[in-house]
Structures are given as structure tokens and as C-alpha cells.
């Protein structure tokens, strides 16, 4: 299998973390591509009409798109167990929360990095951050028991989301007022899979 990647993409990072959690780096060739929301690498378009990463190229079927689909597929392929049946809906919900915060965080980054300064929309940026802040507050308040369980894909997705906030939005200081989540993140950040895939 081949994975189209970018070192800065938090959605790609989720897949790369899963592969390393499984210890199956040899099973997936990672192919870096240079792409952005305004200029899609042709190599992606030849496999994914949406022009997005991650894209997983298989020998026995169409390329797979969307990090959640790819993670679920690879978890089943590698028999890793990151979507345990007994907590499946919690895992999927936490993964969706993490991905939703990432959608807003990436949107904020695009607004600053891709738009000319005179066309930026500060209210849009703040509205996106408000969504992230509410998500973080909800996890701080309601998800501590889940975060204490064995590692699952929801937790790994959350760790990738928090890493992206540090990477692109460090000045927002998401840890302030969220001591439990900050302590959990500090522990998670020591996992070799997360260490090896830090965004750059």
C-alpha cells in the first residue's frame, strides 16, 4: 500500500501514528506530496478526485480517502484493536470531536496563510477558535474516564489535534484552564508513534 502524505497535515499524522502503533511501517510506503488548498498536487488527483490527503492507494481496489476511513481500514487490516467494540461509539465520537476541532484549526491556518491580509476575516477566525475551545472544554469536563482507558483511535486522534494546535496556534495556549487534558497530553506525547510523527 502507498500513503500520500505531508509532514504538516494532522489528518495524515493520524494514519502515520496508527501505522507506527501497529509496528507495520514496512506495509505502507509513505509518499510525500506538495499540495495546498489552492494548488493540488497532480499525483493526488490521479487517485483522489477531492485532491486531499491522506489518500491510501491499494493494489486491489480504488484508493481510500478520509483519515477516519483509512484508519478504520488499517486497524482492521493490522488487527490492532483501536476501535474496541465495547466502547465503539465513544471512540468514534471522540475521533469525530478531534477531527472537528482540526477542521476549524486548519481553516484558521488557511485564513492567515493563504488569504491576502486585506481579505482576512477576523470574526471567522474567532468563530472557529470558539468551536475548538468548546470542544476542549467538553473533553476536559466529560471525557476523563475514557482518556484513562487503553489507547484507542479516539485518543490518538485527540493527541494529533492537540499537537496541531501547538504547531499552528501555540499563542492561543489551549492548556490554560484545562489541567487534566494538559496532563494527559504530556503523557501521550511521549509515545514513540507521536514522537516520530511530530508536525514540521
From TrEMBL:
Alphabetical list of InterPro entries matching this protein:
Glutathione-S-Trfase_C_sf, Glutathione_S-Trfase_N, Thioredoxin-like_sf
Q: Which UniProt keywords apply?
A: Transferase
Residue span, GST N-terminal domain: 1-82
Please provide, alphabetically and separated by semicolons, the GO molecular function terms listed in this UniProt record. Answer: transferase activity
CDD domains referenced in this protein's UniProt entry, alphabetically: GST_C_6, GST_N_3
The cross-references to Pfam families, in alphabetical order and at most eight, read:
GST_C_2 (PF13410), GST_N_2 (PF13409)
Name the domain of life this protein comes from: Bacteria
For this entry, the protein name equals Glutathione S-transferase
State the species of origin. Rubellimicrobium rubrum
Amino acid at each position: 500500500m502507498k500513503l500520500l502524505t505531508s509532514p504538516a497535515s494532522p489528518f495524515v499524522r493520524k494514519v502515520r501514528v496508527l501505522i507506527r502503533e501497529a509496528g507495520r511501517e514496512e506495509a505502507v510506503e509513505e509518499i510525500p506530496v506538495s499540495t495546498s488548498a489552492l494548488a493540488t498536487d497532480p499525483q493526488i488527483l490521479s487517485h483522489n478526485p477531492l485532491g486531499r490527503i491522506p489518500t491510501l492507494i491499494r493494489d486491489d481496489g480504488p484508493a481510500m480517502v478520509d483519515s477516519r476511513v483509512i484508519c478504520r481500514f488499517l486497524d482492521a487490516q493490522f488487527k490492532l484493536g483501536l476501535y474496541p467494540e465495547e466502547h465503539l461509539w465513544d471512540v468514534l465520537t471522540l475521533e469525530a470531536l478531534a477531527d472537528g476541532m482540526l477542521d476549524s484549526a486548519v481553516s484558521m491556518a488557511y485564513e492567515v496563510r493563504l488569504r491576502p491580509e486585506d481579505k482576512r476575516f477576523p470574526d471567522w477566525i474567532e468563530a472557529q477558535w470558539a468551536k475548538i475551545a468548546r470542544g476542549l472544554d467538553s473533553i476536559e469536563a466529560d471525557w476523563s474516564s475514557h482518556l484513562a482507558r487503553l489507547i484507542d483511535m479516539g485518543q490518538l486522534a485527540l493527541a494529533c489535534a492537540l499537537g496541531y494546535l501547538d504547531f499552528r496556534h501555540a499563542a492561543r495556549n489551549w492548556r490554560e484552564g484545562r489541567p487534566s487534558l494538559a496532563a494527559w497530553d504530556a503523557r501521550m506525547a511521549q509515545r514513540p508513534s507521536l514522537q516520530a510523527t511530530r508536525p514540521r
